[in-house]
Amino acid sequence: MIKPFKNAYEAIKKLLQGLKKNKNVPVEETESVSTPAEESISEETKAAEEKLKAMEEAARAAEERARIAEEKARAAEEAAKAAKKSSAGTVNKKAKSGISAKEQEEQQKYEEEVKKRAERAAKRAKEDAKEDTGKKNIDPVTGEELELSPLPEEAVFLQKYMKIATTSDDILVAYNSIQKHPDMPKNIVVLGRNGFGTVKVGEDFARSFFATGLVKSDKIAKIKARQLNKIGLEKLSSLKGGCLIIENAGLVTPAKLVEVIKNSAPDENDYVVMLTGEIDSLAGFFEDNQEIVDSFIYLIDIHKIRERGMISIARGYFKEKGVKADKPIIEKLKNSLKMIETGNIDRFVELLDGLIEKCEKRGGEEILAEDFD
Questions:
Q1: pLDDT, position 337
Q2: Distance from the first to the final alpha carbon of the chain
Q3: 274 has which bridge partners?
Q4: What burial letters (b/e) apply to 3-20, b meaning 16+ CB within 10 Å?
Q5: CA 127 to chain centre
Q6: Measuring CA to CA, how many Å separate 340 from each of 103, 105, 194, 197, 370?
Q7: Most buried of 44, 128, 245, 288 (most Cβ within 10 A)?
């Protein structure tokens, strides 16, 4: 069995602490005679050095992309400043040249719109520069660079997350790696912020896994960690071939999760385990329970999701359900987000489901403002 190069626990620690430098361990030098076995090891070492060199070159290329993104951000900021200066100068010149007040007002509105667009472009460029950290698509199982294929069309339930930069990368890496290594555990960790719901993401993975044939059954069981701690696993026997989603997974007892992992093995009940919860809680859990680490290779990070990402999810969810929403409805959704923690996908989807239900009751195909009442 392949030993995972990088599992979910290590990825969580990277998010919390950054990469830790490996300590140098002194090795005593001794004289030895080269043997065929040692020559073979030498060849393997050369191959490993070449692979490391290739990864370093890829890292340098990624750093260059990040540098270019930062330059674009600076250029956009300069454009915004220039637009603002130009706006003030243009208004003053036109005032002096005797142009009517109405024409001056229209020109000023135009210049202000140009300035706003330049500022928005600068903001987007800054965000892109922050997100482009030189991250390579690494196969969590082998540690090698992974060539990504698009998400299968049948994985329709995950499509709504694909415009969220970091989350979409995690989903693609997980899906491509799982398809490449079908014998490895398919278990997933979904990270959110403290108190924020991420169960919906687990459900969407489960439904997509079934639609694309990665699991044999469409059965999904959702259970809170504290409740799981109290039950016997015979209640999960009907889940065979499906998916188990554990909410607030950082609160599950280590002994119980070990039981679940054994119970979910291919030669037992063959179901996928999905842990959802908050980053600090899950990091601490994996830190204290190293024997569980290698059963969870894939990490989906949604704890940094912002308003723009939430609106992307809404657009994708409406498309998934076959309803439409125009720009004024999207603006009302943005206002509704003020009453929901940004990043709480579970609560947001409940709101969207309520709008869709009202739309369907009146026999319509488009969300209307009255649906918010």
A1: 82
A2: 56
A3: 188, 245
A4: ebebbbbbbbeeeeeeee
A5: 16
A6: 43, 38, 14, 11, 20
A7: 245
- Distance in angstroms (rounded) separating the CA atoms of residues 328 and 186: 41
Task: List the chain residues with pLDDT less than 50.
Answer: 1-6, 18-41, 96, 132-133
Residue 109 exposed, middle or buried by CB count within 10 Å (0-12, 13-18, 19+): exposed
Centre a 10 Å sphere on the Cβ of residue 43 and count the other Cβ atoms it contains.
10
Residues 23, 20: Cα–Cα separation, whole Å: 9
What are the residue ranges of helices labelled H in 132-268?
165-180, 199-211, 225-230, 254-263
Tokens of 246: 């554990």
SS3 state of residue 296 = coil
Reading across the β-sheet that carries 272-278, which strands appear in turn?
220-224, 243-247, 272-278, 188-192, 298-301
- Number of residues that this document lists for the chain: 373
Look over the chain and give the mean of its residue pLDDT values, rounded to a whole number. 77
Beta bridge partners of 276: 190
CB proximity list for 258: less than 8 A, separation 6 or greater: 291, 292
DSSP-assigned beta bridge partners for residue 188: 274, 298
Burial (Cβ within 10 Å: 0-12, 13-18, ≥19) of residue 177? buried
- Pick the closest to residue 74 from 121, 112, 116 (CA basis): 121
| pLDDT digit string, tens, across residues 94-132 | 554 566 777 777 778 777 777 777 776 666 656 655 554
Question: Which pLDDT does position 3 carry in this prediction?
Answer: 46
